[in-house]
Amino acid sequence: MEFGTAGIRGPVTEIGPELALAVGRAAGVDAREAEEPLVLGRDGRTTGGSLAAAVTAGATSAGADVRRAGQLPTPGLAYASRGRRGVMLTASHNPPGDNGIKLFVDGEEYDRSAERRIEDRVADGTDPAPWDEYGNVERVSPLPAYREAVTRYASRDGATPDLSVAVDCGNGMSALATPQVLRELGADVVALSADIDGHFRARESKPTPETLADLQRFVADGPADLGIGQDGDADRVVFVDADGEVVHEDTVLAILAEHYVGVSDAADPVVVTTPNASSRVDERVRAAGGRVERVRLGALHEGIGAATGTVVFAGEPWKHVHPAFGGWIDGITSAAVVTRLVAAEGLETLRAPVTERPYRKVSVPCADQRKPTAMSQLAEVLPDAVPEATVDTEHGIRLELPDSSWVLVRPSGTEPYLRLYAESESVDRLVADVREYIERAAE
Fold first, then answer.
1. Catalytic residue (choose from 81, 92, 205, 278)
2. Measuring CA to CA, which residue among 316, 318, 312, 320 is closest to residue 285?
């Protein structure tokens, strides 16, 4: 068992009650040693109840007190984990036959060292506490407090949205929070697929231009000013404009990044993002008087902790952290903040300063065992192939050209591919030029 970039995740044949029991006991040791309760939540997947029972058994047998929060969005569980430990059972945007386990402490995902500690305990086995030191179980309901906190945060500038919004909940956890928060903010909300269904019968859990086709048609054909689509646990968010077109994820990043830098009074406002984020983010952050620091994919919380200035916003495509509110990825808060901004300024006004160049993402087959050698070769040849580019090899190989075009090559952490990302006015030519080198290195 190993943690990936978003906790432990996979088919329930692998992420089953046996593993949940072991992880629950390992996490329960942390909670017992810290003298903190462990709050436990889950999404709507059909296997969630069994996993929750197993985690509860494991954690209480380790001597930890467990607070059962039931079904709620992952951001709601993160909020509830402030000042204590937290476990969220979710596979996020994965298919319904998958499930997963995410661990939190004081509102933030476990860092890599804490994950390794849990991995070692699971591998070695953890003895239960003596029978008279088992923990207690209590039911809690943190969701109303979380919704109220998001509403208060999003309306802190006093703006009240006068906006019609369609929210595609995709049978997921956003149905319990996003429509309610937006209505409290004053928006006229229509909620689509807002019944919790662990089979995700309305659409695939991952919100993409393909899976959000019904939302796009609904917005284009109706009175809605804005569409919002979310995944199964509501940490991701996608926005659709009034014409029914998906707003590019990097444009959303740029809008939020520029907003947070612009309203900050910090001497050195920093936006943390990932290597695959567009240079349009850097452009808007610089225009607002801030700067960008990058961190590996799936490690925004680590980037926030390591930043040298004041982090005012952190995000990667589809996923955002609002540090002034909390240190977790929160698609519900993003939905609320963007709705308020759109109501106050209009989406087209917000998008106008953002330069949206053509963007491509390509996957080149490469065996897992070949990836280190291929990346090493590419680190040598790509800078010579694009001599006018600035090169950054900290998180893959990123080449930035003087005209703000850029290329990123990185190994996939989950599949036998090298990923190629590119953004340029002549993106097809740029992709073709770089892909030739990648294919040779991957052979």
1. 92
2. 312
Q: Is the pTM of this model over 0.90?
A: yes
Interatomic CA distance for residues 278 and 293, integer angstroms? 13
What residues have CB less than 8 Å from 403, skipping those under 6 apart?
424, 425
| Active site annotation includes 264 | no
CA nearest neighbour of 103 among 94, 95, 357, 113 = 113
- Homologous superfamily of 146-240: Alpha-D-Glucose-1,6-Bisphosphate, subunit A, domain 3 (3.40.120.10)
Tens-place pLDDT, residues 13-65: 999 999 999 999 999 999 999 999 999 999 999 999 999 999 999 999 999 99
Q: How many CB atoms lie within 10 A of CB 381?
A: 14
* Structure-token pair, residue 252: 């959303």
Rounded to a whole number of angstroms, the distance between the first and last alpha carbons of the chain is: 30
At 146-183, the pLDDT tens digits run 999 999 999 986 566 789 999 999 999 999 999 999 99
Per-domain residue ranges of the chain: 8-141, 146-240, 251-330, 359-442
Q: Are 414 and 371 in contact (CB under 8 A)?
A: no
